[in-house]
């Protein structure tokens, strides 16, 4: 169960998840926001540290642990209450716990250290794809298929690739505890050539990991005779142009 931790010190308030799930090799964003009612303070310096008080993020890169240089970034504007941290190329030893503090003004002697703890739950493989599509469809019918995945890297959302051409729409939904839901919707009009073909959705995550899933389309043709031709996918019968001795189940 993931809960929000809130710390108050001298009228400060800060919100972060107690843990965030991330995909190894990808990036993870730890959402963080704070409130400080003293409008006189104009300069804020946001710093993230590990449990040994070693700096994993600082605006001055030379003050950071070497293994976190060029891998961590503070998102948004710290002066506008955004203390969210992004960690790139998530590694197994990035599990935390991590702490956040703010230094006020130009003096490092004056700061608020927030006694919050954030753990990262690192997974080697992404969750299964949620794939929705009607497999049994009629020829000429509009088809809508959706492919959804969960992730924690909103800066670089997953990329979707469909095996079928059509109109694509992307949706991003913010959930809780640093999790996001990314959905790709494909819309196309079915054709008899789609019968028994795989409709495949492939997802590539930031960092290179990918996964895919598919369904087999079953196209039911309209039993309408036009110019001596008939579509016969559903009956397994094939006819030549001009043939008139149709099976009884197809006679009108």
TrEMBL record:
Matches recorded under InterPro entries: CD80_C2-set, Ig-like_dom, Ig-like_dom_sf, Ig-like_fold, Ig_sub, Ig_V-set
Lineage: Eukaryota, Metazoa, Chordata, Craniata, Vertebrata
Subcellular location as annotated: Membrane
UniProt entry keywords in alphabetical sequence: Disulfide bond, Membrane, Transmembrane, Transmembrane helix
Stored Gene3D superfamilies: Immunoglobulins
A single cellular component GO annotation: membrane
PROSITE patterns: IG_LIKE
Residue ranges of domain Ig-like in the record: 126-218
Superkingdom of the source species: Eukaryota
Membrane topology: Single-pass membrane protein
Pfam families referenced in this protein's UniProt entry, alphabetically: C2-set_2 (PF08205), V-set (PF07686)
Protein name per Swiss-Prot or TrEMBL: Ig-like domain-containing protein
């Amino acid at each position: 169960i993931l809960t929000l931790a809130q710390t108050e010190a001298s009228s400060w308030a800060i919100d972060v998840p107690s843990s965030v799930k991330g995909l190894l090799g990808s990036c993870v964003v730890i959402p963080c926001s704070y409130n400080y009612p003293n409008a006189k303070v104009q300069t804020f310096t946001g710093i993230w540290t590990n449990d040994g008080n070693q700096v994993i993020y600082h605006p001055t890169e030379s003050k950071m642990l070497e293994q976190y240089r060029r891998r961590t970034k503070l998102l948004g504007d710290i002066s506008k209450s955004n203390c969210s941290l992004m960690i790139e190329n998530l590694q197994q030893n990035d599990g935390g716990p991590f702490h956040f503090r703010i230094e006020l003004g130009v003096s490092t002697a004056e700061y608020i250290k927030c006694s919050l703890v954030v753990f990262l739950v690192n997974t080697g493989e992404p969750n299964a794809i949620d794939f929705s599509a009607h497999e049994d469809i009629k020829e000429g019918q509009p088809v809508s298929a959706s492919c959804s995945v969960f992730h924690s890297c909103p800066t670089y959302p997953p990329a979707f690739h469909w095996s079928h051409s059509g109109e694509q729409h992307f949706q991003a939904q913010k959930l809780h505890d640093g999790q996001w839901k990314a959905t790709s919707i494909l819309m196309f009009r079915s054709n008899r050539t789609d019968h028994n073909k795989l409709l495949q959705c492939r997802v590539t995550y930031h960092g290179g990991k990918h996964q895919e899933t598919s369904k087999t389309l079953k196209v039911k043709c309209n039993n309408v005779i036009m110019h001596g031709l008939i579509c016969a996918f559903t009956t397994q019968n094939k006819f030549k142009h001009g043939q008139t001795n149709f099976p009884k189940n197809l006679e009108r």
